[in-house]
Amino acid sequence: MKPKKLYVRNFLGLREIDLEFVEGITVVEGPNGAGKSSIFEAIMFALFGTGIRYGGRNPYDYVNSSSIDKEARIELLFERGGREYKLVRVLDARKKNHWAVLKDERANLVLASRVDQVNNEVKRILGFSDDVFRRTVYLPQGEIDRFLKATRGEISETVLQVLYGDTIERVSEKIKERLESVSNDFAALQERYSSLLRELSSFDLESKREERRKLERYREELEKKLNDLREREKVLSSILQSVKDYSSKKRELEELKRLRDVLQKKVEIEGRIKKAKELLPAYRKILDLKNEEKHLEKRIFDLVERKEALEKNVKRLEEKISVMKGKLGNLLEESNAVERSIEEKRRIVEASRPLLEEANVLKDRLRGIDYQIRKIEEKIERKEEDLKRKVEELRFVERKLEEVRELLKENEEGYLNYLAHEVAKRLKVGEICPVCGGTFKGKFGKTLTIESGFYEDLLREERELEKKKAVLERVLKDGEGEIKRYEEELAEREKEKKDALERLEVLQKELEKLGYFPELEGELKDLEEKRKRKQEEFRRLEDEMVKLERETVYASAELKETERSLSEVSAEKEGIMRRLSEEETAFFKALADRGLSFEDFIELSETDIDENTSSKLAEVNAKIEHIANDLGRLESQIREFDLETLRRRYEEIVRKIERTEEERKRVLQEMGRIDQLIENLEVKAKEIPEVEKRLEQVGRQKRLLELAKNSFKKDEFPSFCTARILRNILERTNQYLSVMMDGRFGLEFTEEKGFVVLDNGVQRRAEGLSGGERALISIALAISFAEAIAGRLEAFFIDEGFSSLDSDNKRKVAAILKELEKLNKVIVFVTHDREFSEEFERRIRVVGGRKA
Question: Over the stretch 14-43, which tens digit does the pLDDT of each residue have?
Fold first, then answer.
């Protein structure tokens, strides 16, 4: 867990504080009661919903009692496993309400929104409990030696939970699951092997093949019989089809005769329709004349209305022209007064223009200089960030290179052993060994401990890391030179800015002497806008008056044209009425001549004529003749056959065909069954060697998994892991104690007592040491533990663990603590000791519950 940001309000002694954590060491310093320890309490409470001071019994005791709203709020942004999480907790002491929410910041996803859900999800993400957090990540005030005094079981549990979380338990479960799966596979393979042996012993493969050959000969006989029956069925089917065709054509002939009668009646009706359609042009002409008469009546009505409207419009336009002339006179006087004021202000502006232009040039130059300054500062910031990332990358490469070199050193002897084996494999007994010069006796006693590919990969990785380190060091050096050049350029721009500001102040004073003020040009612009509006209004009124005069002329001319059009349309209407009377008389006379009434004409003229009726009638007559000929031919063909006898014989043949096909199908199915059986027996005979090989492999897996399960069951593997890690931790702790306490004290771990302090080689319990001695040993142990688990824990907090130390020991502890910078972790110490805090570069001072 690596904290990134923390915001706290009204929590214990903290009024309001906003902190941002960075990698490396940060010291939080301030007087007693300033709220320093509350920072760590807030982090722990945010993560687990419980603290050190009041535990979990009543969370509302953590709310600052002097706050007005009685509400505490904690917001913690932290990183774990490459993902960022935001955790918010609010304690409302008045309503006794505690709520929490946990979000995945980058995915913008709420992971939990209830207190119990948040607590469980945080523990899952971190992989350890609040108790482990207090023993390792956070050493609270007064509890710095808690891990030192822990029991053997507590120490082992802490080491395993922090380093592996529930990994060992999950691995044990996976081994059990895998063993159960492999055992099931082994039992299934044994059952399969027995089944294959039983099946192969219960069948005679050669007798099944002979049975298959007999069925094949029987199938061929059935195929021959089936072909004969189908030939006979085809002949009878052809004769029966001729009988069916005769009946069908007889029915078709009767239908065609009925259709012929319908078509003959339709031809007669279409003759009357043609006579009615001949008069359609004359009838349409009458309709057109009536429509034209209606149209002319409407035009006359519209022209009369238009004439009256035009007379009113001419009178209205003449009145508006008179009013417009008075407005134009008043507007001309107002425009002259504005013009005089403009001339006076323009004189001042013209006199001030050279000074203003110089001032504007200076302002533009200042904006450019500010822009350049911002860009240079951004370049510096980006370059510093880039160098910071390169430094981190260089540290990572150096650590990785150190790990690779350590692995090479550990595996060098094994690799040489491998090479000796390779040489020995190619020697014969009695030959001289090119490595040692001795006579080869056919044996090589040492056991191989390494694969050659692994060691060679380490060598390649070492070379690549050395190259990468050299490149990064060169990039860092070049980057520092580039930052220095940017800073020199920034100083030059700052001086240019100062000179420009001084000249701008001189210009401002000269403008005031001329009578210029900043609003003058605005007032002049307003007056020019006002003059422009007056001029535009004058032109608008002039245009409007001209438009009105033009409209008056147009309206008078249109009135005269309307009166003329009215006279012409009235005369045209009278001519149309005379023509309409003549056309109607001629139309009704033509109807009488054809023997049609007006109602017959309307009905028949709207009826469509089928132009193909006559051709259809001729076609039907031809078909009738053709079918009559076909009936005569078919009748002569079927006269000699008895239809009932033919049907009985046909049905009997069909039944024989069906029975024969069923028998053939049965034979084919039996042949397929025997083929499948033969194929299965052959496959199973080939499968037996494969099953035997698989049984041997799965049996070996089963035995190995049972061995692994027993190791976990007896806690052999977890004990081995704990012992190995504690050995590394104690080795590092004793190195620190050698420096810090002049070799007097050491630390060891026993199965009976847990951690035991060695005072000049004599065992002592931690409770018997002084406070300063316990603090130094506990800090050395905590530092060593943090280094050992650096891959999982990414933060380290100590609260007031240095007050009992003298000045000399404080300097020693500070020097050792500075070594933790190499871990690239967030490391925070709380102290009220100014002497101790001044040993470190990054310090935060807290006073009165706030950051000073």
Answer: 889 999 998 888 988 888 777 778 888 899
Rounded to 10°, the helix 205-278/598-605 angle is 150
Residue 339 is which amino acid?
E
Alpha-carbon span 56 to 125, nearest angstrom: 21
pLDDT at 649 (0 to 100): 81
What single-letter DSSP state applies at residue 3? E
Dihedral sign (CA 317, 322, 325, 331): negative
Residue 600's pLDDT is 75
Report d(CA 723, CA 159) in Å as an integer. Answer: 10
Contact 826, 21 (CB under 8 A): yes
Nearest of 120, 132, 200, 212 to residue 164 by alpha carbon: 132
799-847 pLDDT, tens digit each: 766 666 677 777 777 777 776 676 677 888 888 888 778 888 888 888 8
Look at residue 73 in the predicted model and tell me its pLDDT: 94
Phi-psi region of 558 (alpha: psi -120 to 50; beta: other; left: phi over 0): alpha
The whole-angstrom separation of Cα 698 and Cα 695 is 5
- The 10 Å Cβ neighbour count of residue 768 is 10
SS3 category, 10: strand
Mean pLDDT of 780-786: 76
Buried-exposed string 527-564: b where 16+ CB fall within 10 A, e elsewhere = beeebeebeeebeeeeeebeebeebbeebeeebeebee
Do 850 and 818 meet the contact criterion of CB atoms below 8 Å apart?
no
**pLDDT given at position 5:** 94
The C-alpha angle 248, 252, 254, rounded to 5 degrees, equals 125
Q: What's the pLDDT at 791?
A: 52
pLDDT score of 505: 84
Contacts of 239 (CB under 8 A, 6+ apart): 638, 641, 646
pLDDT higher than threshold 90 for residue 85: yes
Distance from C-alpha of 357 to C-alpha of 207, rounded to nearest angstrom: 119
Question: What's the token pair of residue 328?
Answer: 């134009």
